[in-house]
Amino acid sequence: MTKSKLLYIALAAATFSFSSCKKDFLEKNPTEKLTPEQTSTESLIRGLYAQMYQTGTGGTTGHDDFGQKGYDIYMDLLSGDVALEGVNYGWYETIANLSAPINFTTNPNYTPWRYYYAMIYSANSIIDKLGGNDAVPESKSDQYAYAQAKAVRGNSYFYLMNLYSPELYGTGSQKVLPLLTSSSQINQPKATAQEIFDVITSDLTQAVELLQGYSRSTKGEINQNVAKGMLAYAYAARGTNADWQKVADLTGQVISSGAFSLTTYSQAAGNLTIEKPANATGYWDWNYKVSNSDAGFNNIETASWMWGADIQVSTGLDLVSWWGQMDLFTYSYTWAGDPKGIDAGLYDLIPANDVRKKQFYAEADYLPLGKFFAPDLVVGGQRTITTDYLYMRIDEMYLLNAEANAQLGQDAKAIASLKALLAQRYQNAADYAYVNTLSGQDLINEIYLQTRIELWGEGKSYLALKRNKGTVTRGDNHLFHVGTPYKYNAGELTFEIPQAEVINNPNLNK
């Protein structure tokens, strides 16, 4: 990093008025959970979704504690595809240097655990209110609420398995996590991977069934297609031949539903015009304009978005947010000296004529200036967050469909799905015609690479690393462990069960 950049950071640090910037120890009294005593099932469901983007839902006041998108950053950093390139404020340092996952006393081990189990508790409260695990509520409205709660519970266990089980499913016999299926349960022993996966697939299968005919009022809610996407991810994580067939079927159903269209060439990257004033000391002093307003991955109404959060002024998010941590054009950490860019090695693998190359700028710390940006494009400009959160898009279904068919040896089907995506990333079909020649493991490897490129910064690279049993080697723009290879099941890439659970749950290892 240049001396001028360091001077800039020092000045920013002197004027950047953050409250509670120091990392907090674990709260002894976690924030209040949702309970069945709240006024209605509808309010419980709204509260359940709000937990996904509210700050402090991991039980701390840390500036990395802001719901699902906060753990998307954790996973992106662990995958190695996102490089932390500054630690002036320290958030994510112990994730990036891989010390937190192997130290069960740290907040990063605790916050995802606390968050996902809080989501499970809230989902269990709704399930209990509507009759329990084996119920089918009578009214359609209750069925839809019940199904959404089941989907959230299954999806939460899915993420816990990815983050806390090195082998994901493995043989199924390894004891991994406490299994809570009622809000009245506490201090349960660790269940086996098979028992956890049985709940994941059962919950999500029932959600798919009960959400038939559900017409949601906002993309902030889970509908049948989203539940199918969740279930496809779960089956892919276990990865038997029967599972891969289910992944192919589920993703094929979502694609053929016609409810969503692929992210277009224009939407995939901003056409940025950059003015570099003579007195500029770096990219933080440049002036930016964009000619295609449909780009930026910032609008839930985008036709490819299946599920997200519609962030508004009333939501109350500011510097403690995903946008604050990832976007140069938001008043927060990337602007102030903790930039996060694409791994230099992965960047080099993107061909120059692939529109996704324009998402990143090597001369600007490999930042995603052309992928994620607040529309005004004022450096450090967005203070109150109004750019939306992305949880799932249809492009993921095409990639999972390609992966499943490749795993099944259905190369032609896999190539067709992959080419459908690549047709929106290149202007000339000849540039991606090479995929027609791929088969077997070479095709699987190519789909894995395209998944890493396409979904960079969206929290999905870590999931792909684990299910592909990959090895990650960090490029030279990382601050830590440059050139060191880590396998998917390395201790440094999977969290330990946190100290708080070990101390407070006497039945954990029974």
TrEMBL record:
RagB/SusD domain segment(s): 350-508
Secretion signal span: 1-22
Compartment list: Cell outer membrane
Alphabetized UniProt keyword annotations: Cell outer membrane, Membrane, Signal
Ranges for domain SusD-like N-terminal: 24-232
Organism superkingdom: Bacteria
Main subcellular location: membrane
Pfam name, any one: SusD-like_3
Any one Gene Ontology cellular component term annotated for this protein: cell outer membrane
Family, as annotated: Belongs to the SusD family.
Protein name per its UniProtKB record: SusD-like starch-binding protein associating with outer membrane
UniProt organism field: Sphingobacterium alimentarium
